[in-house]
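Subject: two folds for Thursday's group meeting

Dear M.,

Sorry for the delay on this. The cluster queue was jammed most of the week, so I only got both jobs back this morning. I'm pasting them in the order they finished. Each block is the input sequence followed by the predicted structure tokens. Could you check whether the formatting survives your parser before we put anything on slides? The first protein is the one we discussed after the seminar.
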Amino acid sequence: MKMVSNTNIHRTNGIPRIPLRILSLSLLITATTVSAMTTPIHISKRGSSMESFKVMDVLQRANELEASGRKILHCEVGQPESGAPANVAKAAITALSGPPRQVMGYTEAFGLPSLRSKIAEHYLKKYKLSGLETRVDTKQIVITTGSSGGFLLLFTACFDAGDTIAVGSSGYPCYRNILGALGCQVATVKLNAEFKFTAVELSLEIARRANAGEEKLKGLILSSPSNPTGAMLNPVELEALCKVCEENGVQFISDEIYHGISYGKEEATALQFSEKAVVINSFSKYYSMSGWRLGWIVIPPALIDPINSLQQNMFINAPTISQTAALQCWEDDTNAELETHVTKYATSRTVILDALRQIPELTCSFLTGEDKPTETDGVVDESKANIAPADGGFYVYIDLGTSNVSEGYGSVAMCQALLEDEGVAFTPGVDFEDPTGVLGDRRVRISYAGGIDTATEAMERFTAFWPKWLAKVRANQ
């Protein structure tokens, strides 16, 4: 058979000779591919500068050790051991499986009207807002994708890049991190000797900035009960703080996600004292629905339109299945179940505080309200350990004091050694403290959300670990 030669391909000594134009195109494609492989992906300053959420780093390492077969006692995260209430779980199953099986499509941006009505009723009943019903009108209640979604909505609606927002010197790290990513400036205000941020501290900061010619504060975000300290403002203190904010044009965002978990002290909401304050809450803590990613905010009328637009574009709506199930959160038997959780938290809290009392170096504390560390004019003697009040939430926050740390042997190293050697996960204070200061490597947060047995065994291990660790500290001083 006669072969037909390809007139476009020439051969030299039997070897195909590729036309120049094809060779040039091939080389160009190769060079472009190599360039694409060697050129790094651009990372924004916003993304590269944001600090990690350190407690999640601790959780990741704890999970790695657990996966290797180690028994790990989780006292790092604020995640209730119980999971969602039985009625909530049952409602989710019924909605998904039927009959009839619900579609679980989009809701309106602000969430299910029926859920917003439940939340409004909750405020009227719990906080006795008689005469203040307009502050919890369902039009002003927004269901969010967890409290984290609420933070992003509120920060973008209330503040512009360059605005200065006040936060407490010990506080939830995501406030600082999210505000920074949005281009806001963060003003760190030192807490008082009782680990509180009150109207006194805010007034002093406002006056200091005015005298120094610095930018005015545009906002304040504060949690009560606090993460990590557990300190809680009483109604008088909260009312005074709301007043100072309104008088000075400071937008107050009151983070109340630990409401419902307190130990004998009266809870108050900023809605009782201010028509301009914004309240944020969540189903993650008291309602034990951390992974369901559901929260809410209560906003003044002026924020309705901007929040609506932001929610539509950023999130569309919070998870529909979570909203549907959460309708069961205020049923009588659900409430009874949730109160048993609080009883367990109280027991775990006592277990931890009692164990700390047995450690001589850590006995200087606020445990009784009278047993305070030595202080002069509100300044705590930093050589001594002290323990924050733990009025609410499910954390105990310890300042080890300068006497119980040394270079390279602070709370970060201690928590790492405690996890690796003893299988106990605590969170070092670097997650919660002003990153420009030194307190982060002196402080430790212990979560007791994981149950009584976990708290008991964790403190037994820590009590045995502490003398060995302290000996290393002393040897390095």
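Second protein, same layout:
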Amino acid sequence: ESPAIQLRGHFVGHYLSACASMSLATGDEELRERGTWMVQELEKCQNKIGTGFLAAYDEDMIDNVEKRIPVWAPYYTIHKILAGLVDQYLLQGNYKALSIAC
């Protein structure tokens, strides 16, 4: 996803949810491992940012929404990532995913 595209990062949440759901439904270990790996990578991103914020764009996008400057759905993309992390926790017992989301 290009940095110029404002609707970026949401697919990660969909992917996390899909890995958690399909692994639970089918017992597919590879999907469980992929979800776990993605959670670990998101933790690295969150740690690098250093504020607890986690998104595929800068916090400035949220500031722009609050200032009524047009931005394409930053809260939606955060929601998708958080929903995927919560699914990893609820469906796979991944406590690190819950820690990142909170």
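Two things I noticed about the second structure. The mean pLDDT is 91. The first helix runs from residue 10 to 26.

Cheers,
T.
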